[in-house]
Amino acid sequence: MAMTPEDRLTLLREQLLEVQTAISAIHTGAQEYSIANRSLKRAGLSTLYAERDRLEKEIYALESGTGMFKKAYFEGR
Description:
Elements: H1 5-27, E1 32-35, E2 38-41, H2 45-64
Antiparallel strand pairs: 1-2
Helix pairs in contact: 1-2
């Protein structure tokens, strides 16, 4: 079943929030950390900024109707 534009917008907003959270975590010094024998390194800021920009553009396109699908009104002949 295809995703509705509203569902797609919700998903994109959730993803944008996750990216913004990751950016914020890096800005506060959590780029890389270790616990016991395990370590985690977050994506680089340039990657996160690029993903944030992509998500914001897609959200804008869906909200403004400038994306792939647009609303149209056709009068009869």
